[in-house]
Design a protein that fits this description.
Structural class: mainly alpha
Distance between the termini: 94 Å
Helix content: over 70%
Radius of gyration: 24 Å
Strand content: under 5%
Shape: globular
């Protein structure tokens, strides 16, 4: 009787310990993925390693570890972790997610042909699962790798195929923006403007501030490239008003920068300088170093 009581106590203790460990793993995985969303790769990696120490074959932890390494430019370590996660994948969805992440690392390290092949493997799993949303994602990723490799015609084909599987306005707008960029790179400015107009109209209707501002500024940039400075200024001025009315300091600074570029292209450098000065002041105030660097380079070119 006493032995049975001890056995029951041990079983309960083991169950509580296992439950606590599972809860700890789930908590750490949540923290790891949240750190990835926040762009804190070092923090994410620390949480991933804690989980792997408890469970070396935890696929989710390996995925998070791979993404964390990718975020710090450690491609070799990222691919090692992601490939390990891919080998542990059991369902088509598991495979296509792991493969897409592997392809992203390959694309970011300019291994474009390898990335395309990896995305195509992911696409095959998406097809086998009849997952149209992920098929659309993979088709766009293949197009992105081809565009990065200057294979713009091939990229356009994949973007158009992805658009046919897009499920809502946001997904269509995303594809239209990709198509506009690809056509722009080909020098087909009319087609680029056509697709950017489609994207801009959708974002005006249903996009958030970032999406609307980005689409509107890209619209202005494409009009500038096409030499239609009046429409370029009109598009950018809309975003200046939007960002001013909605407290979007980053987009306000970027709008001034884009408008200054239009002034320079239209041979009005004197009108560009005060815009750049205002843009630089805002960029410095909000700590946008990359934007400030772009503004500085344009200012220096006007001296």
């Amino acid at each position: 009787m006493q032995l049975r009581a001890i056995s029951i106590a041990l079983i309960l203790l083991f169950s509580q310990t296992a439950f606590a460990e599972e809860e700890s793993i789930a908590s750490k995985l949540g923290a790891c993925n949240q750190a990835i969303k926040e762009g804190d790769a070092s923090k994410a990696l620390a949480y991933a390693e804690q989980v792997i120490k408890l469970d070396p074959n935890n696929r989710d932890a390996l995925l998070c570890k791979g993404r964390a390494h990718g975020g710090t430019g450690q491609a070799k370590e990222a691919l090692a972790a992601l490939n390990s996660a891919e080998k542990l994948s059991k369902t088509p969805r598991d495979h296509m997610i792991a493969l897409a992440l592997i392809g992203n690392v390959q694309r970011n390290t300019e291994q474009y042909e390898d990335a395309i092949k990896t995305y195509q493997k992911s696409l095959e799993f998406a097809k086998s699962a009849d997952d149209k949303r992920f098929q659309s994602i993979d088709l766009n990723l293949i197009g992105d790798a081809e565009a990065s490799n200057k294979q713009y015609d091939a990229a356009i084909e994949h973007y158009l195929a992805g658009d046919k599987l897009a499920a809502n306005d946001n997904e269509h707008a995303d594809v239209y923006e990709r198509l506009a960029l690809a056509y722009d790179k080909l020098g087909a400015h009319d087609k680029a403007v056509e697709y950017q107009i489609k994207a801009d109209l959708i974002q005006e209707r249903s996009g958030d501030l970032d999406q609307r501002a980005n689409a509107g500024l890209e619209m202005g940039r494409l009009y500038m490239v096409a030499g239609d400075y009046e429409k370029a200024e009109r598009s950018i001025n809309k975003i200046i008003k939007l960002s001013t009315d909605n407290g979007g300091a980053y987009w306000q600074a970027k709008s001034y920068y884009y408008l200054a570029q239009v002034k320079v292209a239209n041979k009005q450098p004197d009108q560009a300088k005060p815009l750049l000065a205002d843009a630089q002041t805002i960029a410095k105030d909000i700590g946008e170093d990359a934007l400030n660097d772009d503004i500085t380079r344009l200012l220096q070119s006007l001296k």
